[in-house]
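Two folds, back to back.
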Amino acid sequence: MLPARLVATVATVLLGVMAWGSLAIAQTPPKLTYTVTLKGVANKALAKQVRSVMVLISKRSKPPSTLIGLEQRAATDRKTIRDLLRSEGYYGNSIKVAIPESGAPVKIVVTVTPGPAYRLTRFTLRWAAGDQPTIKPADLGVVINARARAAAILSAQEKLFAKLADGGWPFARIRERRVEVHHRLREVRVRFTINQRRRIKFGRTIIEGAKGVDRGYIRRRIVWRQGARFTTDPVRRTRERLAAADVFGRITIAPDESRIGPDGRTPMIIRLTERKPRSISVTGFFDTSLGPGAEVEWRHRNLFGGVEQLIVKAGGTLTEYGARISFRKPDIFQGNEDLLADARYLELNTPAYDGREAVAGIALEWRVSPQLTLTAGPLVDFARLDQDGTTRRFTLGGALLTGRYDGSDSLLNPTKGYRLSVTVAPYAGSGVRFARMLARVSGYVPIQPDAKLVLAFWSRMGIVVGEENADLPANKRLFAGGGGSIRGFGYQRVGPLDSANNPTGGRSLFSFGLELRYRFTETWGAVAFFEGGNVATGLFPNGRYLYGVGAGIRYNSPAGVIRLDLATPISRRTGDSLIQIYVSIGQAF
């Protein structure tokens, strides 16, 4: 048994702890719950802005214990609301916060009187001595006698520096920014005093970093001409050309302010950080008619130091799977021609035919302009194809001629501009001689200025000449339907079907689509689309046209736009599924 003295000591301690806990609980003050009513702001948009900056509202779920705590929140809100109103041009405002001393909950009333909106009546630009720019307030988006909003003044300042840099004054500084508020006249007057410094020219180029990349490759991407007046467009275009190589993780281009020459020539410093040359990526996707699919890619971005790219891919779907190896050697001749080599092997189990195919080719890609690219080169195609119980083997020699024009604003998620591609591929061998011609155009029209709502459209046309449909290799006929074509129909299922309800393909194709894209936030969006078209065995697609409609959601991830689409055929035939589901990375077009 425990000694009596030890038992007494433990009991005393426990009783003391319990008493202290009870006292602490009893002394914890209750929370002062409250409500907030905003009065005096008739403009709904302004009232929403006021509520968004109020601490009394944002922290209402965590009330203080005393009225002093409420007063502290009210004092913070008075200053924040006053700053907000002034930024919106309401300089003669008043803010009153009424906090009653009792009540459960405490009913707080915030009365905000914005007052009249003050006008911006004067916007003056003063320059230092020397060459003076011919920039006017209107060039900066300044509207005299408009409401004196702080956002408009800050925007004018940003545009001012952009115009100065583009005009040859990238080192300009604002010596004084003066904002005068005249309460009696309800006017605001702004004056910028600018030291534009010296107007400069492009000097010699200094390249720093990226020791593993050939300096000649980098210099061939430079757009500006030494001795020319400095402007920002050549700098932007040079950065884009360097970024297109996908070999640099960071690119910084700027003139050196500390080394301006007597004639204004200023060294241009290009600072580059090289990415890791090797990478492995895995892509997954799903299509109702194709099933699940995956692809593994290994890439080397700088194989020999001249930004040579080697890409090895493997994967596919249950319908088509295989491997592909591609090689690109930049700057074969003058700096805008690349040598391409490509080889692939595919196992085919499509609705129209089964078999296997091996293709190898070499081509020269010529970048005529930043938007226009031409590609041409020979290829050889080996195929064994099974269709309708008949096996045919083909050995074809041919050429691939492609022209692509990309006038859109983004490679992965365009919101304006258009794209056009035309491909001509003549083939001969195994007793056949024919040519495939395909053209595709897509366009993007922003309906709202911030591209929150975009109308996108596409059209695809194709024709095969030289042989009858039955004599063509099945893999060289034209097909439509599926996630990269007319959504709502299964893969290859738009066009003629045989007695077993399998697609046969054709010699002519016409398809089109419209898609309305809406962006809810920077991350989430939704689309609605309508697509249709036809494939025919003759030289004109004059058969029955099929149409599909659907909707989808978009998630803008760091890896790209992830899309989920559901589509259904309007003109449904026997064998067509009611719903098609598509999951993949990237916009549909």
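---
second:
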Amino acid sequence: MSERDLVAQALSTALEGQLSQEEILSLLENPKSKDHGDVAFPTFTLARVLRKAPPMIAKEIEEKLPKEGFEKVEVVGAYLNFFLDKKAVSEATLKAILTQKEHYGDTNIGLGQNVVLDMSSPNIAKPFSMGHLRSTVIGNALANIMTKIGYQPVKINHLGDWGKQFGLLMVAYKKWGSKEEIEKAPITELLKLYVRVNAEAKEDLSIDDEGRAWFKKLEDGDEEALELWKWFREESLLEFNRIYEMLDVTFDSFNGEAFYNDKMDEIIDLLDEKGILEESQGATIVNLEEYGIENPALIKKSDGATLYITRDLAAALYRKRTYNFAKALYAVGNEQSGHFKQLKAVLDKMGFEWASELEHIPFGLITQGGKKLSTRQGKVILLEEVLAEADKLALTQINEKNPNLPNKELTAHQVGTGAVIFHDLKNDRLNSFDFDLKEIVQFEGETGPYVQYTRARSMSILRKAEFTPDENANYSLNDTQSWEIIKLLQEFPQAVIRASEKYEPSVLAKHAVNLAQAFNKYYAQVRILDENEEKQARLALVYAVAQVLKMDLSLLGIGAPDEM
């Protein structure tokens, strides 16, 4: 039970049902000063109901409160300030972590139900760039978090392997491409062709028409078009999988846009049967004004071509039938918010109650020099190069700090690539951020390497002490230095739930940084290995820190080396 749950339970008893435990939890605050306790409860809300002065209400509640679990409860004006029983809380928290280990914080909220995650989803025949990082690592972290709370994630890489751009690429290949050159460096050459054809199409509108024609051939099953498309796709997947291996990200399905090509007719038939299709300027639409959505969903263009939303409708229906998901999450950039509002609204209008189970998980951009990265203009930062450089920077620092470290290259990869992932996930996902690699791969500051180094330090202490926790022992501490750590350790299960409810991995990244900072402060102030009656309890605390930091990192998809 977290400190807030303990306080809410006591207040619920004292208030005799005037506020529910959920309402009490929503009102609890963190005191501005540690001198004012661990949790504060303001009584202003009750003043409106009870028609009494808040300080009087606070005093009356204090008299009725059960005091078990608290060192003391003070009334300060309109506030009740709770000081938790450090000895009892530390004993319970350490016991839970030492016995449950990596299962600390596990819950069965999900009841084993499936959660489908649409994530990563790069376009074939284009390089895997920094622009694909956010969807990949946010989706992967959410899959880990959902597993922790009892769901079964299904990770789907909805590849961008269909559309007019592939028609344009075929035009470029036919005009300027060389099979030999592409076979030597597939993605590099295909990118050159893609950038060139887009530049030429701005000057020569007929190129755009040729692209449409080639894509129409592909849709109609033309042999040459299909052969080129399959070639582009196979070469792309080889490249992508190499990078996914670097990130330690796996998928349950690579069914991309093309997979749903033969499943859209059913969607159009269903929309027609429901009587919700309309004609507008030759196009086929679904009007969504009753949902407060001004723009209609464009199902078919005037030339009969289907659009993204038609394909996503087919994908949603297929996934519901195949996986019977409890939730379907789409880790896709913020700029697609309008599209997903339309998608949910159309599915709801079709009568699918499960439309409410779809959630768009939007995120901001990674920028360089404050500017958006664009494949079309050739401004690409290749993710593979970034990860390789991050690993190299990490290795340089490891060589300086610990030149005799075994398996240096593996540790450098965990640290370097982990730093890139951590930097992405420590930011609230809706925020955009500028990318500076040298700042990210630092062993100081709010970075992944800082958290990893802190955990490695804790493991070093445990090795030096030759400490193995006794699961039957009752370790407890009541000093102020350890109390900040105990509170953060106790908070971990609730942090996991908060991260799952908000679909926000940054909750766990911030928890990891706070715990690492609290431990390093403790390390600087307390002689952990001094022989006295508290030594074993202090070592149990170090063990708990190592365990929880590892879980924080693991849920974010980041390794936790035992030595650095």
